[in-house]
Amino acid sequence: MTSTHDQEHNLGVCSQLAAQASEAGCRMLCLPECFAFMGDSSMQSPATVAQPLNGPLMSRYKQLARDNGLWLSLGGFQEAGPDADHIHNCHIIIKANGETAATYRKIHLCDVEVPGGQVWKESSFTSPGCSTTVCESPVGKLGLSVCYDLRFPQLYQELRFRGGADVLLIPSAFTKPTGSAHFELLLRSRAIECQCYVIAAAQAGQNHANRQSWGHSCVIDPWGKVLARMDDKETGIAVAEIDSKYVADIRKRMPIATHRSAGRSSLMKGGESL
């Protein structure tokens, strides 16, 4: 989707996507980072529109889940933060009955200067989270993250090898320069090294005059194969089936969890002998 500063417009688009997902027989719909709001000026700081997770805007998304009988992955909501100037970038999982299944607050904040002269300083209006999150769902055990987290493989190792995740959710709002260079490459790497499905819902197209998102939402299987994808401007859904038996088969044939444990043990022994 292509979010804007108009929360009503964005909710309308999400409602259309939910209806499409329901008609397609989906159990779960994943929405990108900033699905509810994308400011188009420095005066529209996310902190100015932030709400608590029990506030009126989130209640409408919970109703959207109930109306369509869908689980929702709400990939980056502007949650009211610790003070008036800072939010939490919060990934929320909503059950089909409208109840909250899990929340995760983005740990790695995007403070970077990208090629082309754009400067992003997420920490100027966002406070980081401090813990990882996994939860059960109809499509498997979910490992939650948000966008810039993608560049830190240790987070996904934690979700997979400690948390037991089968599906890694990576809702994103990559810019065109970084997305064209790194987005799919990093997504496929996380899928392969963790032997998990990866679902990456992404912002796409021209959000406002100074912001073009990369798009290319996709679903990737544990072998690194792209099962479904969107383009760089399209609004809509990409549908894929999550096969838990396939996850188990991949992990059985290439037992990297066992090899990882053995390798860590050998390294510790080696360290003790030095």
Automatic annotation (TrEMBL):
- Can you tell which superkingdom this protein's organism belongs to? Eukaryota
Q: Which UniProt keyword terms apply here?
A: Hydrolase
The molecular function terms in GO held by this entry are: hydrolase activity, acting on carbon-nitrogen (but not peptide) bonds, in linear amides
Record keyword Glycosyltransferase present: no
Q: Which InterPro entries match?
A: C-N_Hydrolase, C-N_Hydrolase_sf, Nit1/2_C-N_Hydrolase, UPF0012_CS
- Asked whether the UniProt record includes Repeat among its keywords, one would answer no
The segment(s) forming the CN hydrolase domain are: 1-244
The protein's name in its UniProt record: CN hydrolase domain-containing protein
Record organism: Ostreobium quekettii
